[in-house]
Automatic annotation (TrEMBL):
It catalyses: a triacylglycerol + H2O = a diacylglycerol + a fatty acid + H(+). The gene is LPL. The keyword ATP-binding does not apply. Signal peptide: none annotated. It is found in: Cell membrane; Secreted; Secreted, Extracellular space, Extracellular matrix. Residues 337-460 form the PLAT domain. Keywords: Calcium, Cell membrane, Chylomicron, Disulfide bond, Extracellular matrix, Glycoprotein, Heparin-binding, Hydrolase, Lipid degradation, Lipid metabolism, Membrane, Metal-binding, Nitration, Secreted, Signal, VLDL. One of its GO terms (molecular function) is heparin binding. Belongs to the AB hydrolase superfamily. Lipase family. It comes from Crocodylus porosus. This is Lipoprotein lipase. InterPro entries: AB_hydrolase_fold, Lipase, Lipase_LIPH, Lipase_N, Lipo_Lipase, PLAT/LH2_dom, PLAT/LH2_dom_sf, TAG_lipase.
C-alpha cells in the first residue's frame, strides 16, 4: 500500500442517511451522525443485522444490548473497496469467545473511509465526534458506565477512537490503537490524533513503521501509555516476498491487498491472538531502543519493565511513554520465549571479527530448540558480548546449550590459512518469561570455539558462581580456568 504524502484536509460536509429503524424523530444533536453502530452477535459475527441508533431508546432493546456487561467498540480504517475487511468478523468472534456476555459494536464509516486518503484522514474528526455522541447518549439515557467502554481502532480508526475519547464527557476506560495510521498524523498535535489523554488507559501496537516518518503507513512515535513494537515495529515475520509468492500460489491474486498490508494488519491479529490464548500471553519488555533489545539487554520485569501484549495488558500509567518490544512467530499462536545470552571471549591473540554467523541450541526439561541462527555484529578477544535469542517452543527450564561458529557462505583465503579460536569458560543466560538467571560451564573447563568446527557444549555450572570483589575473589570475566 503506497500512500501519497498528503496534507491534512478540513472537511465540513453534512450528510443525511437512513438506517433500518431510524425515524425523523431522532433530530437535534443526533441529526448529523452518519456513522452506523452495528451490534454484532456471537452467532453471526460477520453480518450487520441490528443497529443501535443514537436517540432511539428502543433500538437497544431491539438489538438485545446487555446493559450490565462491558462494550467493545471497533472502528475500522481506510478502505479501498468500501467494504469491511476480512479481519472484522475474526475480531468480533475472538472478543465474544473471551467475553461471551459483552457487546461488540462495529462502527460503520465505510462511505467516509473510502475517499482519497487525505479526505478520509480528515473525516476521523467527524467519526470520532459521532462515537463520542453515541457513548455520551448511552451514559445519559441508560446510566451506562464509561468504565465499561473499550474502543479498538485500526489504522485511521485508532485516531477516530482517540478523538472520540477526547470528546466524551467523562474518560472512557480504555483505547487500544492497532497500528494507528502514520500519514498526516505523525506530526499532528495531540488533539487531532490518538494520545494518552484520550482514555484512562491507552495501549498501542505498532507493526508497520517502515520508512521516513511522513511516509510510514503506521505511526512511528509513541502515542499511548504503553506502546509496543513487535519485532521492532518495522516489519513482521511472514510478510516477506517469499510468503507473498506462497500465498499467491495457494489462493491466487485475490488476496493481493492482504499481502500489501500484511504487517499493518498484523496488529489486529496479534490482539486477536491475545484474546484466544488467555493462558499464554505474549510478553513485551520496556527498552529505550530496538537495538538494545536485540542485544538482550531489556529482559527485566522489575518496576513494570515487562507487560503482557494485547487484551491482558496490565494498566500501567507512566508519566512518559513506555516503549516496549518483543519477538513473535510468523503465524498464530504468535508467542515466543526470549533469552539473553552473555559470553566473554578469551584468546591469546587480540582478534576482532565482524558479522559472524553462529548457531545456538537450547535443551530444556520439556523440549529443545536446535540450531537457532544469529549474527554477532562483533566478536573480540577479552570482551563480553550480549545478544537475544528466542524459541517458538517452550523448552521448560534450560539444562544445557551448545554453540557453533559457522563458516562464511563465501570462500575466504584468510580463513583457509588462518584458523582463529576463541576460548569460552562460561555462558550466562537470562530467561525473559521466567526471569531466571543461569550460568553454564564447559564440561572440559574451557570450550574452544573455532570457525567451521563442531559445536561446543555447556552444562549448568556446579555451585553458584558469584562475583565477590570485596572478599578478594576475581569477577568471572577474569577467571582463566574453571574450578
Amino acid at each position: 500500500m503506497h500512500l501519497p504524502k498528503p496534507e491534512f484536509v478540513h472537511i465540513h460536509f453534512h450528510y443525511s442517511f437512513s438506517i433500518p429503524g431510524t425515524t425523523p424523530e431522532t433530530g437535534g444533536i443526533f441529526e448529523g451522525i452518519e456513522s452506523k453502530f452495528s451490534l454484532r452477535t456471537p452467532a453471526i459475527p460477520d453480518e450487520d443485522i441490528c443497529y443501535l441508533v443514537p436517540g432511539q431508546k428502543d433500538s437497544l432493546a431491539h438489538c438485545s444490548f446487555n446493559h450490565t456487561s462491558k462494550t467493545f467498540v471497533v472502528i475500522h480504517g481506510w478502505t479501498v473497496t468500501g467494504m469491511y475487511e476480512s479481519w472484522v468478523p475474526k475480531l468480533v468472534d475472538a472478543l465474544y469467545k473471551r467475553e461471551p456476555d459483552s457487546n461488540v459494536i462495529i462502527v460503520d464509516w465505510l462511505t467516509r473511509a473510502q475517499q482519497h486518503y487525505p479526505i478520509s484522514a480528515a473525516y476521523t474528526k467527524l467519526v470520532g465526534k459521532d462515537v463520542a455522541t453515541f457513548i455520551d447518549w448511552m451514559e445519559e439515557q441508560f446510566n451506562y458506565p464509561f468504565e465499561n467502554v473499550h474502543l479498538l481502532g485500526y489504522s485511521l480508526g485508532a485516531h477516530a477512537a482517540g478523538i472520540a475519547g477526547s470528546l466524551t464527557k467523562k474518560k472512557i476506560n480504555r483505547i487500544t490503537g492497532l497500528d494507528p495510521a502514520g500519514p498526516t498524523f505523525e506530526h499532528a498535535d495531540a488533539p487531532l490524533r490518538l494520545s494518552p489523554d484520550d482514555a484512562e488507559f491507552v495501549d498501542v501496537l505498532h507493526t508497520y513503521t517502515r520508512g521516513s516518518p511522513d511516509r510510514s503507513i503506521g505511526i512511528q512515535q509513541p502515542i499511548g501509555h504503553i506502546d509496543i513494537y513487535p519485532n521492532g515495529g518495522g516489519f513482521q515475520p511472514g510478510c516477506n516476498l517469499g510468503e507473498a509468492l506462497r500465498l499467491i500460489a495457494e489462493k491466487g491474486f485475490g488476496d493481493m491487498d492482504q499481502l500489501v498490508k500484511c504487517s499493518h494488519e498484523r496488529s489486529i491479529h496479534l490482539f486477536i491472538d491475545s484474546l484466544l490464548y488467555e493462558e499464554k500471553p505474549s510478553m513485551a519488555y520496556r527498552c529505550q531502543t530496538k537495538e538494545a533489545f536485540e542485544k538482550g539487554l531489556c529482559l527485566s520485569c522489575r518496576k513494570n519493565r515487562c507487560n503482557n501484549m494485547g487484551y491482558q495488558v496490565h494498566k500501567v500509567r507512566t508519566k512518559r511513554n513506555s516503549k516496549m518490544y518483543l519477538k513473535t512467530r510468523s503465524q498464530a499462536p504468535y508467542k515466543v520465549f526470549h533469552y539473553q545470552v552473555k559470553i566473554h571471549f578469551f584468546g591469546k591473540e587480540t582478534v576482532t571479527k565482524t558479522n559472524q554467523p553462529l548457531l545456538i541450541s537450547l535443551y530444556g526439561t520439556t523440549d529443545e530448540r536446535e540450531n537457532i541462527a544469529f549474527i554477532l555484529p562483533e566478536i573480540s578477544t577479552n570482551k563480553t558480548f550480549s545478544f537475544l535469542v528466542y524459541t517458538e517452543v517452550d523448552i521448560g527450564d534450560l539444562l544445557r546449550l551448545s554453540l557453533q561458529w559457522e563458516k562464511d557462505s563465501f570462500f575466504s583465503w584468510t580463513e583457509w590459512w588462518t584458523s582463529f579460536t576463541f576460548d569460552i569458560h562460561r555462558v550466562r543466560v537470562k530467561a525473559g518469561e521466567t526471569q531466571k538467571k543461569m550460568v553454564f560451564c564447559s564440561q572440559d573447563g574451557v570450550a574452544h570455539l573455532q570457525k567451521g568446527k563442531e559445536a561446543v557444549m555447556f552444562v549448568k555450572c556446579l555451585g553458584n558462581p558469584v562475583r565477590r570483589r570485596k572478599a578478594g575473589h576475581k569477577p568471572i570475566s577474569e577467571i582463566k580456568t574453571d574450578p
